[in-house]
Design a protein that fits this description.
Elements: H1 2-24, H2 28-33, H3 40-51, E1 65-68, E2 73-76, H4 89-119, H5 126-138, H6 141-187, H7 191-228, H8 231-280, H9 284-317, H10 320-364
Antiparallel strand pairs: 1-2
Length: 367
């Protein structure tokens, strides 16, 4: 039993050391060293690495744990095979973990390698791609590394250019939609308040309309009494008219005040709409800068296209120095193109900032 326990301990330690080595060796060099990016061949190599120390009899292990007595010890029953050769359940689990870990590392390394190549790609055609591959294959190790780094730099700037372009489209669409909303809300500034005041004027006039009708009627009767020179009738009607006069004056004053409030609200609305629209026009100079920046981006794109053609032409000639020179020029042109897109995005952000300020002003107004 001691001998078996010793063998099991050693096996577990070896497996743990393999797992530790696996964790420390997750770099690309480890993958290249073991040929783990070679497709099916790599997978076969992985399986060979993980299973080379496992005896065929080990695949027929049947282990169970039986709790015995008060000591709580475990007795391991092994199936028929070579004595001292069959591993414990823990041993098998550790070896399985090693195999799974290697497979995961292979998959992760393959994905990383594929994503890196895709991110560093340039829009080459089939012919140019073959020419580029030929240049790389003929170059020595140092020149090959320099060419690959320059190539990846171009791809990195191209990726950034595409990312800025997408950000510009998203932000510009948001700014356009926000501008429309702001224009509508500015046009509707204080509309609810003005509508309420107009309704008050209307209701007040309707409430006093019977009084005004009665007062007009009394005055017509007074004029009739004066026409027929009936003093008693004239005196009675004049008394009624005198009684109604102050009430009518108060009613007219009430209507006048409410109409004045309505007029002042409309005046404030006109001034506020003008102020907010002036704030909106604060984005106009920036929009002009955006148009200029777009022209610069178009020129940068044209320079990129020309540099790309020069690079493709140099790959056909196959001279490493010329390829590197044209690749550096292409990287510079791509960087400027990406920079022009970043500048446009920055300007779009300024437009957005202006709209945010207008939005905040609208939010401050009492509802």
């Amino acid at each position: 039993m001691q001998t078996e326990a010793w063998k099991e301990t050693i096996s577990e330690q070896e497996a743990m050391e393999c797992c530790s080595l696996l964790e420390r060796s997750s770099s690309h060099n480890f993958i290249d060293h073991h040929g783990l990016i070679k497709g099916e061949k790599g997978r076969k190599h992985l399986e060979d690495l993980a299973l080379e120390d496992i005896d065929p009899m080990e695949t027929r292990v049947s282990a169970s744990h039986v709790l015995t007595g008060d000591s709580g010890s475990h007795v391991i029953r092994q199936s028929k095979g070579k004595p001292g050769k069959l591993p414990s359940l823990a041993h098998l689990l550790l070896r399985s973990r090693l195999l799974i870990g290697l497979v995961i590392l292979f998959s992760a390394g393959t994905i990383y390698f594929a994503s890196s190549v895709e991110a560093a790609g340039i829009d080459l055609g089939v012919t140019a791609q073959k020419a580029w591959d030929t240049v790389l294959n003929k170059a020595d190790a140092q020149n090959k590394l320099t060419l690959q780094r320059a190539y990846e730099k171009v791809g990195s700037w191209k990726t950034q250019e595409q990312a800025w372009e997408q950000k510009i489209k998203t932000l510009h669409a948001a700014n356009t939609a926000e501008l429309e909303r702001l224009r509508v809300e500015i046009r509707q500034t204080d509309d609810a308040k003005i509508a309420a005041l107009a309704e008050k004027v209307k209701q007040t006039q309707a409430r006093y309309e019977p009084l005004f009708t009665l007062y007009s009627s009394v005055n017509r009767q007074l004029d009739g009494a004066k026409a027929i020179k009936n003093k008693e009738w004239s005196a009675a009607i004049r008394t009624q008219a005198d009684t109604l006069r102050p009430v009518v004056q108060l009613a007219r004053e009430d209507i006048r005040i409410k109409k004045k409030e309505l007029a002042e609200a409309r005046k404030r609305k006109t001034a506020e709409v003008k102020r907010l629209r002036v704030m909106l026009t604060g984005a106009d100079p920036v929009k002009k800068q955006i148009q200029t920046a777009k022209k610069q981006a178009s020129l940068a794109k044209e320079r990129y296209s020309n540099a790309l053609q020069q690079f493709k032409q140099s790959t056909k000639q196959g001279q490493t120095s010329r390829v590197l020179s044209s690749l550096n020029a292409l990287a510079s042109a791509t960087e400027k193109w990406a920079g022009s897109k970043q500048n446009i995005h920055t300007l779009e952000q300024k437009v957005s900032t202006t709209y945010v300020k207008v939005r905040q002003e609208l939010a401050k107004r009492p509802k």
